[in-house]
Structures are given as C-alpha cells and as structure tokens.
Amino acid sequence: MARKPQTRWQRDPEGMRKRILAAARAEFARFGIDGARVDRIAAAAGANKRMLYYHVGKKDDLYLAVLEAEYEHIRAGERELNLEALAPADAIAALVAFTWQHYLDNPEFIALLNNENLHRARHLKQSSKVKQLHSPFVALVADILRRGVASGDFRPGIDPVQLYISIASLSYFYQSNNATLSTIFGRDLLTEEAKAARLAHMTDLVLAALRRSAPATALDRLREAS
C-alpha cells in the first residue's frame, strides 16, 4: 500500500513554525492580543487553524511564544557584540548603540512591549524561558562594570539591572513616543541627523554617569545618610 505523500508543513515543520510566529508577530503588534485573530494569522502563514494549534498552541500560547522569541532575538544580538572582549567604556557604548538600533529595526517589539505592559505582564509571568535569558545577560553587564571599576574608569556601586533599564528606557521612550515628541517640539526626531544626535547624547549621558569622576548621586547620598 502506497504511503500518503507528506504535505509541505509535514516535510518542514520548523519552517512552518517560523512562518506562523512571523505572522503572529505582525498581527499581535498591530492589534494586540485582544484584537488579534487566529484565522488572520493562519492565513498570513499559509496555514490553517489546525496546523497552527499543532505547531504552537492556542492564541495565548502563540502570543507567549512570540514574546519569548522577541527576547531571544535581542539577547542573541547582544551576545554577538562580544562585549566581554571590549574595554569597559567601549562595551557600554556598544550596548547603548545596539539597543538603540534594535528598537529602530524592530518597531513591532515596542508595540508588543506596550501591549504586554497594558496586561501587566500577565503572559510573561508564565514564562521560565525569559527569566533564564536575562540571568546571564545581567551577569555580563555586572562583569563589565566590575572591569570598569578595576581599571579605574567606572565608579563602584552601579546596579547592573538599573543600568540596563536606563539604557533601554533612553531608546524606548524616544521611539515609542516619537509622534507626540516630534509634535510638541516641532521637529522630526527620526531624521538621520536627529537619530545620530540622539545616539551620541545617550552614549555621553550613560558614560558620564558611570565615570569615577562623576559627582555623588542621590543613591550615594542615601547610603551615606543610612
């Protein structure tokens, strides 16, 4: 008895999963999880609902898979920077530049973050993968800071998590609020000249805060008073 020929998705299940995640990313970024429709995702991926459920799961599962893939993407890009091989100040500058460019290249990431924050990280709280991705990254930033203190370039006492949140915020807020900021200040903040000036400003700002010669911070004063 002749074997039934395999369909395309059976021959290339990983390829089908990637197409489903790409379609879901675009759908969730545009409509959020509440407005997204599984049938549109399936159609955009060249699949059907049964295939989608087989490869990823129901709508909430699919949304979490998209979020996890976004964090895997940014952490993988950071690893490729080889920050441990750079001088501390150069490593921080490279991280600032990468974070800035990643948000520019991935506006869907900003939309997904906005949506998940509206839901108070309801889906991310269910993910063990995201936490596992961030632990080694925090350790890497902490090591850069330790090397900077040892070389005399950075002052001690910088929290690596607070530092990264500040770096991400400087890029994120500027881009997520670009429409209102450009209107308020009467200039296009995403011209090539404006983007270059923004990156230079962010890099100077972060490195100035880390330098040993930086003035005492509010946190330093709080420690001294306690």
Explain the overall architecture.
α2 packs across α7, α6 packs antiparallel against α8 and α6 runs antiparallel to α11. Helix content is 75%, strand content 0%. The protein has 226 residues and is mainly alpha-helical. The N terminus is likely disordered.
Mean pLDDT: 89
Structural category is mainly alpha
Question: Cα-atom Rg, whole angstroms?
Answer: 21 Å
Q: Let me know the largest β-sheet.
A: none
The low-pLDDT segments are 1-6
> Which band does the percent of strand residues land in?
under 5%
Order of helices and strands: HHHHHHHHHHHH
Give a brief rundown of this model.
By secondary structure, the protein is mostly helical.
State the main characteristics.
disordered N terminus, 0% strand, 12 helices, mainly alpha, globular, 226 residues
What's the structural blueprint in terms of helices and strands?
Elements: H1 8-11, H2 13-35, H3 38-45, H4 49-55, H5 59-80, H6 88-105, H7 107-118, H8 128-151, H9 160-176, H10 178-185, H11 192-210, H12 218-225
